[in-house]
Structures are given as structure tokens and as C-alpha cells.
Specification:
Order of helices and strands: HEEEHHH
Strand content: 15-25%
Number of helices: 4
InterPro entries: NIF_FeS_clus_asmbl_NifU_N
Protein name: SUF system NifU family Fe-S cluster assembly protein
Family: Belongs to the NifU family.
Distance between the termini: 45 Å
Oligomer: single chain
Strand order of the largest sheet: 1-2-3
Helix content: 40-55%
GO molecular function: iron ion binding; iron-sulfur cluster binding
Number of strands: 3
Organism: Neobacillus cucumis
Largest sheet: 3 strands, antiparallel
Shape: globular
CATH class: Alpha Beta
């Protein structure tokens, strides 16, 4: 492994831990239009995702739950990423994220921001469900919107 890969892995770990220790959008939206509860029974991760959709745009998103650093940081990153996006864009991001979890290079047409830090999870199949839990909850809620 080159030193560039080591540096990138270290950076990704820092980004993941930053979102885990200082989660963005943690809480419950009192005026949310959607509430989705999901869990990963194999490891005990659970999430409650609330978001507000108006005129086909995700206006706000928050999450509550408990789980490993991968699960909670992924929820933090996801809620940051979908705010202000059209429902279709958020679902497209979810598809790109799912492909990334299968080891595919992320599509450059959409800026994933911090989410790219989760790319390394694809090397650990047991952790993929942790990373995708919040995304699956978001998909379930947004697909009910259509």
C-alpha cells in the first residue's frame, strides 16, 4: 500500500470519527412529514429518521438512534447530504452510495462530500449493513413520497 493510500485511509477514519463524535442533524423534527424506524438485527444498530419534504425538496432531515461509529456517522453524513436536494436527487445519491458499498467507484457527476469517507467499508462485508441503514430508511421514506 502506498503512503498516499495510508494518508487517505487516515483522513477517512478522521472524517468518520468526527461525524460519530459530533453528529450533524441529531434529533427529531417535530414538524417532519416522514418518520421511518429501522434496525439492523444482526448488530443492534437502530435509527429513527425524520425529514420534511415540501414541493419535492427535502427541506430538513434529522436522526436519532444508536449503533456503531459506521452506522451513526453514515446517518450524520446522509442527513447533511440530502438537505436541500430534490427527492429524485436524494434517491440517486442513495443508489450511488449502494454501488459504492459494493466496491464500485463513486459516480463523479454528484459530489458526495464526506460520504466518500465510507468507501472503505466495502472491504468489510459485515459492516455494509451498518453503513447503509440510514440510507435504506431514507429510501423507504422518500419512495412513500412518490
Amino acid at each position: 500500500m502506498s503512503s498516499n493510500n495510508i494518508d487517505l485511509d487516515a483522513l477517512y477514519r478522521r472524517v468518520i470519527m468526527d461525524h460519530y463524535k459530533k453528529p450533524r442533524n441529531r434529533g427529531v423534527l417535530e414538524d417532519g412529514s416522514h418518520t421511518i424506524n429501522m434496525n439492523n438485527p444482526t448488530c443492534g444498530d437502530r435509527i429513527q429518521l425524520t425529514f420534511k419534504v415540501e414541493d419535492g425538496i427535502v427541506k430538513d432531515a434529522k436522526f436519532e438512534g444508536e449503533g456503531c461509529s459506521i452506522s451513526m456517522s453514515s446517518a450524520s453524513m446522509m442527513t447533511q447530504a440530502i438537505k436541500g436536494k430534490k427527492v429524485e436527487e436524494a434517491l440517486q445519491m442513495s443508489g450511488i452510495f449502494s454501488e459504492m458499498m459494493l466496491g464500485k467507484e463513486p459516480d463523479d457527476s454528484i459530489d458526495l462530500g464526506d460520504i466518500e469517507a465510507l468507501q472503505g467499508v466495502a472491504k468489510f462485508p459485515a459492516r455494509i449493513k451498518c453503513a447503509t441503514l440510514a440510507w435504506k430508511a431514507m429510501e423507504k421514506g422518500l419512495k412513500s413520497e412518490k
